[in-house]
Amino acid sequence: MIYCGIDWAERTHDVALVDDTGQLLAKRHITDDAAGYKILLELLAEYGDTEEDPISVAIETSRGLLVAVLRTGTRKVFAINPMAAARYRDRHSVSRKKSDPGDALVLANILRTDMHAHRPLPDDSDLGRAISVLARAQQDALWNRQQLANQLRSLLREYYPAALAAFAAWTNGLCRPAARELLKVAPTPTRAARLTRIQIQAALRRAGRQRGIEAEADRLREVFRVEWAHQPPLVEDALGKQMLALLIQLDAACTAADNLAAAVEGVFPQHPDAEVLLSFPGLGVQLAARVLAEIGDDRTRFANARGLKAYAGSSPVTRASGKKSAITRRWVKNDRLNHAGYLWAFSALRHSQGAGAHYRRRREQGDWHAAAQRNLFNRMIGQLYHCLQHGQRFDESAAFPAGIEDTAQAA
User: Fold this and answer.
1) Among 153-157, 211-215, 324-328, whose mean pLDDT is lowest?
2) What does the alpha-carbon distance between residue 69 and residue 88 come to, in Å, rounded to a whole number?
3) Is 90 exceeded by the pLDDT of residue 172?
4) How far apart are CA 6 and CA 85, in angstroms?
5) How far apart, in whole angstroms, are the C-alpha atoms of residue 399 and residue 12?
């Protein structure tokens, strides 16, 4: 068999091919463009790469056009963790020397000796990969929006506490269109105190508010006219200009998050697994799309439910050495899936009697809140694996039989 290793970079890549004995058969330095990809595919074909018997490839990334080209056909592509590749490099040399062609050779030898210890990239459908792109982008947009909102809140505390008090009653206060519109109209507390009811009502209508405009305008006007501490006029005006610059970024982040959320809502229901995912308590379209984005739709990706639980970081890990043994939470995991699982378990407590009873039972046994939620997520993601494998919808009575009985007795 022939094995291929590619050390990728931004503009060029180094390729190495070895045989079963570790003998270097060929090496190439290619560019990151269509001409370089053609040279790579011709090199693989020269050494026996066919649709029936493809050459496996190891590379230190799972994204990009190079990976997309390599994944055409039946070829297996292995994304090797760079830290793992560095440890393999030390097996061949203790001098700490390093070169790009040498790294390509190391990657090829990883497949030659330890292919069984690594998993190829999952064979997800194009629709599944598109959902993955949109769901991750929407999650990143939300994180970016929250970061900018925190920066804006910190700035307003320095000179504009009236705005924070006025928007405190609103969910996602600073991210709401009405809050952003009012800050544009009155970037400083001095200007906010001069706003009339008509100006405030007009700002609320521009932001899309349709009900309770008069009452809300009166409340906001009262808050803005309360006596607050002020910065010197020149400093206040300067801070107002800084706030408007930050507000432009927050506006863009909010628009991006909303547009990506709409894109996810349009694409996700088309996926065959959407019905199964949405049948689980606590999973809406956005959260279910994030879960699907991380686990994919390749049924052979995880050998069993334990593999998926370890990947999600919900199952504990045992560290034993000599007479010492400890069971701790798993630190190496898919952080995006783990974050989605935390939100999923938290939401399921309010939408599933069995999930709520399971959580309370874990708390009574001594688990802290986070540990109890992680245990609930661990159970539910195992149930999700079973349902996806068999094409079944979630069944509350089968998932939490004891929890439902406990809830009925308590009632």
Assistant:
1) 324-328
2) 26
3) no
4) 12
5) 52
Yes or no: say if 2 and 19 are a contact pair by the CB < 8 Å rule.
yes
Q: For residue range 342-362, what is the model confidence (pLDDT) as tens digits?
A: 999 999 998 999 999 999 999
| pLDDT given for residue 173 in this prediction | 85
pLDDT of residue 411: 42
Integer Cα distance of 410 and 245 in angstroms: 56
3-class SS string, the chain? CCEEEEEECCCEEEEEEECCCCCEEEEEEEECCHHHHHHHHHHHHHCCCCCCCCCEEEECCCCCHHHHHHCCCCCCEEECCHHHHHHHHHHHCCCCCCCHHHHHHHHHHHHHHHHHHCCECCCCCHHHHHHHHHHHHHHHHHHHHHHHHHHHHHHHHHHCHHHHHHHCCCCCHHHCHHHHHHHHHCCCHHHHHCCCHHHHHHHHHHCCCCCCHHHHHHHHHHHHCCCCCCCCHHHHHHHHHHHHHHHHHHHHHHHHHHHHHHHHHHHHHHCCCHHHHHCCCCCCHHHHHHHHHHHCCCCCCCCCHHHHHHHHCCCCEEEEECCEEEEECCCCCCHHHHHHHHHHHHHHHHHCHHHHHHHHHHHHCCCCHHHHHHHHHHHHHHHHHHHHHHCCCCCHHHHCHHHHHHHHHHC
* Dihedral sign, Cα of residue 78, residue 83, residue 86, residue 88: negative
Encoded amino acid at 198, one letter:
I
Compute the mean pLDDT over every residue in the chain, rounded to the nearest whole number.
90
In degrees and rounded to multiples of 5, residue 22 shows phi and psi of 90, 5
Whether the CB-CB separation of 82 and 6 falls below 8 Å is answered with: no
- Residue 28 CA to residue 31 CA, distance in Å, equals 10
The whole-number pLDDT of residue 287 equals 95
* pLDDT, tens only, 126-150: 999 999 999 999 999 999 999 999 9
Instruction: Write down the pLDDT at residue 403.
Output: 54
Question: 294-339: per-residue pLDDT in tens?
Answer: 999 999 889 899 999 999 999 888 888 888 888 888 888 899 999 9
Q: What is the pLDDT of residue 407?
A: 52
Q: Compute the distance between CA of residue 67 and CA of residue 60 in angstroms, rounded to an integer.
A: 10
The sheet with strand 3-8 has its strands ordered as: 24-31, 12-18, 3-8, 56-59, 77-79
